[in-house]
Model the fold of this input.
Amino acid sequence: MGSGWLAVQTLLVYLFLYTPVVVLIVLSFNDSRYAIVWQGFTIEWYIALFSGETIARVDPSAAYHALINSVYIAIVTVLGSTVFGTMLAFALDRYEFPGKRLFTGVVYMPIIIPSIIMGISLLLFFNIVGMSLGVNTAIIGHIAFGISFVAVVVFARLRGFDRTLEEAGKDLGANEIETFRYITLPLIKPGVYAGALLAFAMSFDDFVVTFFIIGNENTLPIFFFSMVRQGISPGVNVVAALILITTMALVAIAQRFQGPTW
Done:
């Protein structure tokens, strides 16, 4: 009886989480200029978008530019955050130094503090140093909080790491670099991948911090916000559905290559 109730609860949770996503994808095929009124099935909105036509207040060129900005910022953020976040995790796990407890708390701050506080702080910083707002400042800001997410995930992986494996490698003649490359890195790779994916998701999805520090440029979340303020349209549903489908496909491919170690 207990397992039956648990199954029902699990089903309700999944329905609560994913019903809005399904509704959004279904309405992207709606044969109506009013996004929330179902009038029939059509793919004309997708055809219009791919042919470069403006559909229901959505300019494909503007959406494409915002998408390119979001992907570019997210990729650079992943590269920087993964490298520095992994190094930071090793420093916290392997070394003792004065103020380590306080420094560890500082690492968690970008995760804990409200995004609006971080956005305003970064905006003030860029104004003080005289940097022009744009894609580059957005990348710096995203790396600033992405490092923390990667560091926390990799640090958790390192806490369960068996150090005797490294010692065995050194006993067999491996130097520090060889030990890291052939023993340490393969074993912590799932944590590094998880941190990188989390950094990508947080960067690609971020609105609040980016809104303060990107200036006159656009990312996809900011583009969507400007569109939704005018009312939800079929064009917004189509672009959102394409992003969701692409994201799920990428996750499936990544899981296929990574295997069950995730």
